[in-house]
TrEMBL record:
Residues 65-80 have a biased composition (Low complexity). One of its GO terms (biological process) is lysine biosynthetic process via diaminopimelate. The active site is at residue 453. Keywords: Amino-acid biosynthesis, Lysine biosynthesis, Pyridoxal phosphate. Residues 386-480 form the Orn/DAP/Arg decarboxylase 2 C-terminal domain. This is Diaminopimelate decarboxylase. Residues 138-384 form the Orn/DAP/Arg decarboxylase 2 N-terminal domain. Signal peptide: none annotated. Its cofactor is pyridoxal 5'-phosphate. The modification N6-(pyridoxal phosphate)lysine is found at residue 147. SUPFAM superfamilies: Alanine racemase C-terminal domain-like, PLP-binding barrel. It comes from the Bacteria.
Amino acid sequence: MDDIHEDEQTAPRPAVAGHPAPRPGTGTSGGGDPDHAAPGGFATGPGRHSGPGRHSGSEPLPGSGARRAAPVVRRTPVGAGCAPGDPAMRRDAAVRAAVAQGLVGPETPIVALLDVAGIRESAALLREAFAAVAAPGTPVLHAFAVKAAPLVPVLRLLRDAGLGAEVASAGELALSRAAGIPAADTVLDSPAKTPGELRQALALGIAVNADNAQELARLDALVAASGPGDGTAGATARGAGAPLGIRVNPQIGGGTIEALSTATATSKFGVALRDEGARAWVVRAYLERPWLTRLHTHSGSQGVPLELIAQGLAATYELAEEINARAGRQQIDSIDIGGGLPVNFSSDEQTPTYTEYARLLADRVPGLFDGRYGLVTEFGRSLLAKHGTVLARVEYTKTSGGRPIAVTHAGVQIAARTVYAPESWPLRIAGYDAGGRPRTGDEVVQDVAGPACFAGDLLARDRAMPLLRPGDYAAVLDTGAYYFAHHYAYNSLPRPAVFGFAVDEAYGAQGTDGADGPDGAAIADGADGAGADVRFAVVRPAQTTEEIVAESGGAHAASLVRGL
């Protein structure tokens, strides 16, 4: 894994990825609860993971404080029974190691963790699923929707896993380029592209999906400026001749979350195919522009049934066939089918799978996979959601109206959708004790609250789970996409640090009972047999208070008093 290194120092438990070493006397366990510290490995008692159940979940919030020393990464072996191939056990190992290494604690009460092995596995499963149903030799570009996790190291990881990028702004394009994603593997989508964004995309050779007739007119001008109107027009304006196309809305209806349904009758995206005269306009637009060679739709998102998504793709495929028949040639040679595979937020099971989805499409739209069309996908949430965890310290506990409340450092600043729309975006909460071990015990109905100053800032309402205590940690699961990467600066709460982690089979910990492993790394008490080696790498440092002031106009404090 890039940029994950074993620390060469011999001092006990040095700082990890920009975080300070623990104060003397705190111990390698991070101050575990002696009443609930389970010797040997990780306890996995019933009920420790609280699903969305009756209400909703939410997420953790950023740590504060000044930026620390340069990153140093330390390996921490943990107990037996942690299978590197088991995502839930990898998560448990990472939580315990994050506490032990001081990535999270009293002075840094929130951190976000990304499972690198899980992300790589999802990328591989995506590629395999479509390769299995497409004719041999079919070009397929899987362009990750950058909006789901606009973090350069994540984009670089996905690039190395064989994915490209779908961007929807100049900022996302800059992130993609910083990650080294080639222009040929990049797609520009947005309903509000500026002239400058279009010009830059064409100059770089980035594919563009025009959203509407007015945007297409802008492309006309750029292409016309590059050469005569024959079949190769626009080669200069389009760099190496990147595909240009139109986004259409098949208007097949929405899912359970209205705000995310992109193929409704009145959606703001694309050309509405069922509106009077719209389909004929699209056909004519292609016939008049030989350089339009791609057709794009995006009918899926969270809450949209797979069958409905397939209906939208079938309608788009039929349109491509009509245009090519009218043109008398294979003018449209690639179809961008978008993304939008829903994610299961109620358990660790990853469903629906890419294999199920690809097989459904191959059954419903077989011509899409017969080799005549190149394919582009734009998945985001489904690639990363299950591989992210926000870990937030429980600062206080109280009772109100007879119901226990755990006040944590995670809330609306990183889980705005869950806090404001809990029924649509419930999240699971897992409890861990102060040493990072799974909190077990009888389930107690409780609320898990965030730090923001409004009453609705809750991670979970009326949630049955083992009772959280001060110093414990609330882990907000399935938050790898659209959560900690999208900070909402309520109360000027800082962005949390984000770390990637890897868990490897490590040294045998034969009855070590807390002994030191290689390089003085602590091994879990009572671990027998093979342990697991947890390594961390910085994805994004925690935001400092100085940065908050700077981003809030600190350098211009007197501008409204003296400048006007």
